[in-house]
Design brief:
The protein has 253 residues and is an alpha+beta fold. It folds into 2 domains: 26-171, Jelly Rolls, CATH 2.60.120.10; 178-251, Winged helix-like DNA-binding domain superfamily/Winged helix DNA-binding domain (Arc Repressor Mutant, subunit A). It is 42% helix and 22% strand. It is built from 9 helices and 12 strands. The protein has helices at residues 32-40, 50-59, 114-118, 140-149, 151-177, 180-195, 205-212, 216-228, 244-251, and strands at 26-27, 61-65, 70-72, 80-86, 89-94, 100-106, 110-112, 126-129, 133-139, 199-201, 232-235, 238-241. It has a 5-stranded antiparallel sheet. A hairpin with a 5-residue loop joins strand 5 (89-94) and strand 6. Helix 7 crosses helix 8 (216-228). The protein is elongated.
Length: 253
């Protein structure tokens, strides 16, 4: 199937909703102790002292964000750091023709929006809640003060940014040199590693197609071929990898 379409997606059915930093959200029911415990589990903040964690707890806020809400768009200024407590957030770009390409999908204990805070000061992707989310928010000024007092925080953010850049380069290489079956196999293996299980849940065929730069129909056909070959089993928003080694071989084709 090499030489198939290199980008795909669908135009949004309606204009994305305003981002949470510009609209009021329903406050989360989390108690302060729950938020503090959650923040202490984030790798970026693991070098902070108990007193510094209490201050971090004071300056961050938690919001419940509905599915479909767009946090920011390309060329918008970055004013806050977002941390996912619950739910999933998708980072993507849309071509002038309206084709969507997913950069990454983030789950709990991940942060986003950091690129605009560290360098360009402008976002270069869309960020959208693909599930109902609980989000911690920290302002640019508070983050800058924290980094000045705790340089380790900046180093850990740079580690996260570097890892995402490496993943993006790998995906770009796959799209340039591999066919759709190899791209999908690579994606499924990566998702299984991220979710810590051979059962990959929560993603539609459209989500998978947009992540590898093809159309939903093509992705569905390739998934059915992988199922017929005994590599995977397919359910509703669930894909189970039955033969990881065989799927890895497909990813290298």
């Amino acid at each position: 199937m090499k030489g198939e379409e290199q980008a795909a997606g669908t135009k949004p059915d309606k204009a994305p909703e305003r981002s949470p930093e510009r609209t009021s959200e329903k406050a989360s029911g989390s108690q302060p102790a729950d938020k503090l415990r959650y923040l202490s589990e984030i790798t970026v903040f693991q070098d902070l002292s108990p007193r510094e964690m209490e201050e971090l707890n004071r300056i961050t806020t938690i919001s419940v964000v509905p599915r479909g809400r767009v946090f920011y768009r390309p060329e918008e200024p970055g004013e806050v750091l977002f941390i996912v407590k619950e739910g999933r957030v998708q980072l993507y770009r849309i071509s002038p023709e309206g084709k969507k390409l997913v950069i990454t999908t983030l789950g709990p204990h991940t942060l986003f929006g950091e690129m605009a805070l560290l360098g360009t000061k402008l976002h270069n992707t869309f960020a959208e809640a693909v599930e109902d989310c609980t989000i911690c928010v920290m302002s640019r000024n508070d983050l800058e003060r924290l980094i000045l007092s705790k340089p380790q925080v900046a180093l850990r953010i740079l580690e996260i940014t570097g890892r995402r850049l490496r993943e993006a380069e790998e995906r770009l290489e796959n799209m340039a040199f591999k066919g759709i079956p190899a791209r999908l196999a690579s994606l499924l293996l990566r998702l299984a590693q991220e979710q810590g299980s051979n059962d990959i849940t929560g993603l539609t065929h459209q989500d998978l197609a947009e992540s590898v730069g093809t159309y939903r129909e093509t992705a569905t056909q390739v998934l059915n071929d992988l199922k017929a070959d005994g590599y995977i089993e397919i359910g509703r928003k669930r894909i189970t990898i039955l033969d990881p080694e065989g799927l890895a071989a497909v990813a290298e084709e």
